[in-house]
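User: I'm putting together notes for a lab meeting next week and I want to include a structural view of one of the chains we've been expressing. I don't have a solved structure, so I'd like a prediction I can at least talk through. The sequence is below, exactly as it appears in our construct file.
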Amino acid sequence: MNAIIVDDERLARNELKRLLEDFPRINIVAEAANADEAIELIEEHQPDLLFLDIQMPGKNGFELLEVLEDRVPEVIFTTAYDEYALKAFEYNALDYLMKPIDSARLAEAILKVEEEFKKATQVQTNVANHNYLTENDQVFVKDGEKCWFVKLGTVRLFESMGNYVRLHFEDQKPMILKSLNSLEERLDPKNYFRANRKHIINLQWVEKIEPWFSGGLLVTLKNGEKTTQIEKIEISRRQAIKFKDLMSL
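Assistant: Thanks for the context. Below is the predicted structure for the 249-residue chain, given as structure tokens.
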């Protein structure tokens, strides 16, 4: 697994590299002292994993992830501040390590990385076998005490909520314990499209498409049978190019 360390402190980068020597599966391909350096290196190396500091000169770690849009690798935050933990998991971080980094906690984080890549391998196998969930499949959804048996074609929107995904169908919005990335790999790409970092839309529910800022698009979804709420989802600039290709003759 190729990784990049992003931290403005050289000593902190060196210490993390030393600790990672005990984990030969993690291959450090580059290191960056700030977000701008990191963006170029991520574009060049396409790493599987980022060890990412939060407080840095210029863009902070969260702003870096916003710039990456849909190219975000798995992320382990490394920081001296505990007040960002909740926000970190809103960005689907695998873990949040406090400095100075404890070797046992690092081992736990690496285990999470390995488990995530095992899941990804299984997903790739499913994709190779075209084992997608289609709009005709029905899935069981449980949120608290409520349960639904939902036909996927009725789900117009999947919304990332940290480590959960909120399903939008009819007037219901239950959450399931699953990442949006893992869910995306199971959904049939002919019917479901990753609009941005936080949303997957059901193409059958698209009502209107408008140009949006910075080359993006704004999609309006049809209302569910029991709701009058209008849902507008932004398609990021990078994904807008794919969307136009997908929807064109």
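A couple of points you could mention at the meeting. The mean pLDDT is 89. Residues 2-128 form a domain with the Rossmann fold fold (CATH 3.40.50.2300).

User: Perfect, that's what I needed.
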